[in-house]
Amino acid sequence: MDAAEPLALSLRRYAGPPARIMEVCGTHTAEGFRTGVRSLLPPQVKLIAGPGCPVCVTPAGFIDTAVFLAKKRPDAVLCSFGDLVRVPGSEKSLAAVRAEGADVRVVYSPLDALAAARENPGREVVFLSVGFETTVPASCLALRAAKREGIRNFSLLCSNRTMDRVYGRLRGAADAFLYPGHVSVMTGMALYRRLAEQGVSGAVAGFGAQEMLLALTVLLQKLGEGKPFAVNCYPRVVTEEGNEAARRLVRDWMEPCDAVWRGLGELPGSGLRLRREWEAYDARAKFALPELPGRENPVCRCGEVLRGACEPTDCPLFGKSCAPQHPVGACMVSAEGSCSAYYRFGGTVWNE
Amino acid sequence: MERITLAHGSGGEQTRELIESVFFPAFENPSLTRDDAALLAAPAGRLALTTDSFVVSPPFFPGGDIGKLSVCGTVNDLSCRAARPLYLTASFVIEEGFEAEKLKKIARSMAAAAAEAGAAIVAGDTKVVRKGQCDGLYITTAGVGALRQEPAPGGDRAREGDAVLVTGDIGRHGAAILVARGEFGLSSSVTSDCAPLWNMVEGLLREAGPVSCLRDATRGGLATVLCELAEASGAEIELDEKALPVCDAVRGVCGLLGLEPLYLACEGRLAVILPGNRAEAALAALRKSPFGRDAAIVGRVRAGVPGRVTVRTAIGGRRLLAPPAGELLPRIC
Questions:
Q1: pLDDT over threshold 80, residue A348
Q2: Distance between CA atoms of B275 and B210, rounded to whole angstroms?
Q3: Which of B319, B320, B321, B328 would best serve as a mutation to test chain A binding (most A beta carbons within 10 A)?
Q4: Which residues, in sequence order, are bridge partners of residue B93?
Q5: A162 neighbors A133 (Cβ within 8 angstroms)
Q6: CB B188 within 8 A of CB B175
Q7: Which residues contact B197 (CB under 8 A, 6 or more apart)?
Q8: Where are the alpha helices (DSSP H) in chain B?
Q9: Which residues in chain A touch residue B310, judged by CB atoms under 8 angstroms apart?
Q10: B318 Cβ under 8 Å from any chain A Cβ
Q11: In contact, B45 and B54? CB cutoff 8 Å
């Protein structure tokens, strides 16, 4: 914590022009609150939460598809990350379907789902694959292991997305981005250099208090210099080239496709789907699952929260009918969702 | 007798065999009788009475077992009302097939913990259920104690200017259970902090005077206790993150799994709230106990929003501490 105090002090004393910074990683949202970094921001600096939580940007239609699968194949084992289980679909969540008797299991890794397939050779095991660049390789590792071991009862219901198209779509929402630390380990700095050439600025930040303070300080300084920039404030793990081995693994198994993001609508080329040759591991093909449009709650403002168009506290449901114990929208379900973070940590009350 | 069978629960010869070979040798004391009820001398002053059930999985974990946990949990509940633990009861629901040696070990654990707390196990019951109708072993206890502080510590007694202490490092029990369950492929040196705390509490009251609040941080961790106390007292509590004692092993487990030590269960840690001018005396008294070596002053009660708990973070920022939502870890106690 040695550098944290002077950094915190200099941030508090910032006397420059107003700045809007968008952070696009759910962990940055949560840690920004939990460490108290957010509470130290000077009044003219606004930290806006963006669409960085993979659970939050998963549209209701995906949940509906998973629920459909659970109903169509009651003997199947559905494996999911914890938060996804509570996200409401158009009618019900996976938690509700589990209470009705479906075998929905929380796993911490796709490899746990593969283990379930190994242990239950007579049953189909489906892993609900959500996540950005950081977690997709793990899903592909599970597939590679399944293929190597000849495991046929394992498949992915894929809803993975990549962050690279998001910045262009959201360029007006902020003056600069706080780039996601671990996604950047995969992509490398090259992506952000290209974005800087297109006039989009940002700095890659780690997740400790000191690292976030550093990145914010650098961001404000560079904004003052007036030129588009891309700075690596997490050089411990983020390199120029990123993780080519991981990217190659993903390319072996998946290819880009168009994807719908809650809050952003359809972003061309921002999703990942299994390549045709791996159809046997694609739950959509294997079980002939329909593409369901999904219906969001019309009063819930998660979509606007996700693109930084409003704060969670602007939503009429916030803290009333929508709270972590009984969430209405995806942003309240996930521990890394903006609404959940605002609720649990007290929002911007310290900045008033 | 290798395993407990349904016959052991039927009330006849085999039930007697079970009680005589497992429970009586372990719990032996003057008040423990083969009659239907124990007869006890009533102490002067008011009585405290508590009850608890224990369903922890796995039944054996680093630092203890379900037996030790059941006695410590009960004794600590009494201690938190400043009541000297006197008598305990223990009822057992045993799953058919449970190993007799394990049951004996658990009974001996209970006896040791009770002796350490100066209490006697004076009554009990056993039932055996079919395989699958309970998970191994469930223990239900009741505990009676003699009140040593009037007015007794209570959740609604925190006032502005009070200091908030914790009697040791937090999150050990929750972390130990997590690791012992083996679901994450973690290995760690962390052991549960399960311990009987009456002696420490007695020393605290004797040397630092009456306390306003005493509460043991079990399910939901210290965070839950502080939220409860702030709510019940209609006060605001401010926690100093830098002052919170957390051992490296717990930090490590939490860091890996994205958990917060404040929300992890303890089984031998108390939150203590008392007037600020006696905080140092309380700290000194707690640290004399082997279970209070890492005691620390971690916060204060201040004027603010009633029921709110705030944290001054390590970097000097601020945030709310919310009560945990949902189930963090099932069956930890």
A1: no
A2: 9
A3: B319
A4: B127, B138
A5: yes
A6: yes
A7: B72, B75, B76, B79, B167, B216, B268, B270, B289, B291
A8: 13-18, 24-27, 66-79, 100-117, 172-181, 198-208, 221-233, 248-257, 279-287
A9: 346
A10: yes
A11: no
Both structure tokens of A260 = 């719908």
The predicted complex's ipTM stands at: 0.83
The token pair that represents B123 in the structure block: 């009554």
Q: Is B44 on the interface with A (CB under 8 A)?
A: no
Q: What is the 3-state secondary structure (H, E, C) of A24-86?
A: CCHHHHHHHHHCCCHHHCCCCEEEEECCCCHHHHCCHHHHHHHHHHHHHCCCCEEEECHHHHH
Nearest beta carbon to residue B320 from set A1, A210, A344: A344
- Whether the CA torsion A127, A128, A129, A130 is positive or negative: it is negative
Between CA B69 and CA B52 the distance in angstroms is 11
A81 in contact with chain B, both atoms CB, cutoff 8 A: no
Using the beta-carbon criterion (under 8 Å), do B322 and A345 form an inter-chain contact?
yes
Q: Does B316 touch chain A (CB under 8 A)?
A: yes
Q: Is B19 exposed, middle or buried (0-12, 13-18, 19+ CB in 10 A)?
A: middle
Instruction: Give the span between the Cα atoms of A39 and A322, in whole angstroms.
Output: 24
Contacts of B308 (CB under 8 A, 6+ apart): B230, B236, B237, B320
Cα–Cα distance measured from residue B258 to residue A31, given in angstroms and rounded to the nearest whole number: 11
The Cα angle at residue B21 between residues B19 and B27, in degrees rounded to 5: 70
pLDDT value at residue B329: 57
CA distance B37 to B59: 28
Element (H, E) at B121: strand B120-129
pLDDT digits (tens, 9 = 90+) for A303-346: 999 999 999 999 999 999 999 888 899 999 888 889 999 999 98
What's the pTM value of the predicted model, to 2 decimals? 0.88
**pLDDT tens profile A251-298:** 999 999 999 998 888 999 999 999 999 999 999 999 999 999 998 888
Of A1, A325, A346, the CB nearest to B315: A1
**What is the DSSP secondary-structure string of B210-239?**
--SEEEE--TTHHHHHHHHHHHHHT-EEEE
A138: helix, strand or coil: helix
Please name the member of A1, A35, A325 whose beta carbon is closest to the beta carbon of B317. Answer: A35
Residue A168's nearest CA partner among A336, A30, A338, A307 is A307
Three-state secondary structure call for residue B146: strand
Q: Which of A174, A184, A229 is nearest to A205 (CA)?
A: A184
CA B198/CA B216 separation, integer angstroms: 12
**Is the bond preceding residue B151 a cis peptide, omega within 30 degrees?**
yes
Q: At what angle do helices B66-79 and B198-208 cross, to 10 degrees?
A: 20
Q: Do B313 and A346 touch (CB under 8 A)?
A: no
CA–CA dist B308, B321 (Å, integer) = 8
Residue A309 CB: number of other CB atoms within 10 A? 14
Answer for the pair A13, A43: CB distance below 8 angstroms, yes or no.
no
Of the partner residues A33, A213, A324, the one whose CB lies closest to the CB of residue B319: A33
Question: In the prediction, which pLDDT does A4 show?
Answer: 81
- Backbone φ and ψ of A140, nearest 5°: -70, -35
